[in-house]
Each structure stands twice: as structure tokens, then as C-alpha cells.
Amino acid sequence: MISVLAVEIPYWGQSLLRVLGGLVAVLLPAGAIVYLFLFKMMSFMQSRLGPMEAGPYGSMQLLAEVGKWLQKEDISPDNVDKTVFKLAPVVVLLSTFLLIVVVPFGPEAVFADLDAGVFYFLAVGSVSVLGILMAGWASANKYSLLGGLRAAGQLIAYELPMVLATLGVVIQAESMNLNRIVEVQNTEAIFGFEWLGNPFVITQFLGFLIFMIAVQAELTQPPFDMPIAESELVSGYMTEYSGFRFLMFFIAEFATAGVFAFIAATLFLGGWGVPFEWFGWDNLDDVSWWMNIVGPLILFTKMLALVFVIMWVRFTYPRFREDQLQTFAWKFLIPLSLANIAVTAILKVAV
Fold first, then answer.
1. Beta carbons of 221 and 227 less than 8 angstroms apart
2. Is residue 200 part of a domain?
3. Rounded to an integer, what distance in angstroms lies between the CA atom of residue 9 and that of residue 1?
4. Which residues partner with 3 through β-bridges?
5. Total domain count for the chain?
6. Is 206 helix (H, G, I), strand (E, B) or coil?
7. Nearest residue to 160 via CA among 45, 349, 328
8. Which is nearest to 87 in space by CA: 129, 125, 131, 127?
9. What angle (nearest 5°) sits at the alpha carbon of residue 119, between those of residues 114 and 122?
10. Do 95 and 134 contact (CB within 8 A), yes or no?
11. Which 3 state secondary structure label does DSSP give 138?
12. Full residue range of the structural domain in which residue 336 is found
């Protein structure tokens, strides 16, 4: 039972706290990403200030944008399949909330500590493809359908490198439990330096690079934004959406960027932890309770660093053609990820 100040909380209270915690864990990073990177970082890269009117230094601009979209009329074209059309953004956003379930924010600060956590997030991460296909097909619009089909082909192509990139981590940690992966990175030593821990970003750098490229493609961020290419498809599968439903797609895009960055930080950067040697801890059981408070702040900082890289690439590189996009996945990323698995397995057995 969850207890606060030695007071037991009933099951319905625990469920309510989990729902509220999930909302904060998904929506707070999404808001921070939009303000810090979409509004400000992109503006600075283009030698301008960005939004400045709403709140101090434009800090309330995000609330103004949400208010604007909530006031817009929710329009459904005549020929759409209304049930599927309306469910599509819900499915896409729901997949993001399902992903956050297995992300550990501390030794005990996790919604579901699953032994097959890696398998779970790889499986659930594919659900968004269904929502995008639903949106493209149900819109009764050729641009939307083309965008949905492009998105499905792209996400399927880049999910395989993502899965293969995580296998190197699973082999090295000998576990699919995300908290166990955090523990291994913060208790083992690399090159004899225990104070550094063993962050897999060093030993699995190729896997980390492939994973981040696959994340960029999964998010349909430039240079992998063919499904929503404005110059060709208007807005792709989102063309016919307006008002609150378009807002749901918008929130899902940046919330998913935050969640994937949380997962990447957990797999490759030590997650919520710092090397346990700093505090004289030997394993997860020794970790003090206050890491459940400090851990989320550490993980949030690592998440922002990874999202900075994602957004930097987004604002820097031009769009791939469809043939270049598919060739890059099937002829380069997949063979490299297979080679990484083979080398990791050999070294694991030999060493």
C-alpha cells in the first residue's frame, strides 16, 4: 500500500494518484519542450526572440495557444468515417500515456515495475501507428491517406532498428526490467573507475546513436517528416483535423518526444540515478528514500538534454526523400544494429 506520513491510502486513492502522476509526467515535459525548444530555441537559432507578449518573456504563450485551440470549432468533413475519425487522436495520445507507465523515476517511483519493461514499451510504442492510420484513412482525403500510409511505412521501418538497438542494452544488463538496467549502470565500473559507473551510452554508443535516429523517425520530426510534409501533403494525416482534436495530435507529438527521451535516458544515461559509489550504496536496496524525490529531477534534466539534440536535428537538417528514408533504415541502420548485437554478445561471453 502507498502511504504518506504513515497514513494508508485506499486503492481508489492510489489509482487517482497514479492518474494524476501520469498526467504530470506526460504533460509537464510536453509543455517544457514546446516553450524551451519550439518557441525559444528555434527562435534563437533564427536570430529572433520568439513569443514575448503573453506573460514574462512569453512564458504564458503555451497557455494562450491551448486556449486558442480549445475555442476553435471542431469540424468533421461530410465524407469522413466519424467514429474512426474522432477516435484516431485519442489512440495516438493514449499510446503516450501507456508508455510512461514503465518509466522509473526513482527506486520506488514507478507506476508499474515490470520485469519485461523493455518489451512492454517496444510493444506499446507501436500503438500510435494504428491511430495515425485511422486518421489518414477515415479523413476521406487523399493528402491524409498518403500521409497515413507514409507514416505507417516509416514507423514500421524504424521500429526494427529501435528494437535491435535496445537488445544490446538488454544483453549487457541481462534484464528487461528498466529499474534493473538503471541499477547496473550505476553500480558497475567502466575502465576500473567505479565513481563513473557504467553508463551504456559509452559501451553501447552505436546502439544509442541508432536508437536516437529511430526516435527521430518515430516522432516524424525532420529530416524524417515525410508523413506531414507541408509542401506536399499540407499536414498529412492531420489535414482535416481542427480544434481540440488537432490539439491532441500536437500534445501527443511533443509528449511522446519527452517520453522517448525518458526511455533513452533510462537505457543509456543511467536513468534517475547517479553512480551509487558516490554514496556508498552497493545495490538498489541500499538506495535512500530521498532518491524518489531527487530521481525525477535527475531524469528530467537528462530528458531535456536528449530533447535538445532531437530539436537541434529538427531545426538543422533538410527532409529526406521517401526512397532515401527507407534505404537509410533497411540498408544502414538495421545491419549496424545487428553488428552491434553480435559484438555485444561476443564481448559479454568473452569478458
1. no
2. yes
3. 7
4. 8
5. 1
6. helix
7. 328
8. 131
9. 125
10. no
11. helix
12. 78-350
Q: Which of 62, 57, 53, 52 is nearest to 28 (CA)?
A: 62
Is residue 60 one of the residues assigned to a domain?
no
For the entire predicted model, the pTM comes to 0.90
Task: Write down the pLDDT at residue 308.
Answer: 93
Within 8 A by CB and 6+ apart from 39, the residues are: 50, 51, 58, 61, 62
For residues 5-41, b (16+ Cβ closer than 10 Å) or e, as one string? eeeeeeeeeeeeeeeeebeebbbebbbbbbbebbbbb
Low-confidence ranges of the chain (pLDDT < 70): 1-7, 351
pLDDT at 7 (0 to 100) = 57
Model confidence over 147-172: pLDDT tens digits? Answer: 888 888 888 889 999 999 999 999 99
Please give the Cα distance from 134 to 151 (Å, whole number).
11
**Cell 544483453 maps to which residue?**
171
| DSSP character at residue 3 | E
* Per-residue buried b or exposed e for 109-124, using 16+ beta carbons within 10 Å of the residue's own CB: bbbeebeebbebbbeb
Cα–Cα distance measured from residue 120 to residue 98, given in angstroms and rounded to the nearest whole number: 9
Separation between Cα atoms, residue 42 and residue 33, nearest integer Å: 11
Q: Which residues contact 57 (CB under 8 A, 6 or more apart)?
A: none
Torsion of CA 212, 302, 272, 289, to 10 degrees: -170
* H-run or E-run covering 8: strand 7-8
In a domain, 23, yes or no: no
- At residue 300, the pLDDT reads 94
Answer yes or no: is 29 within a domain: no
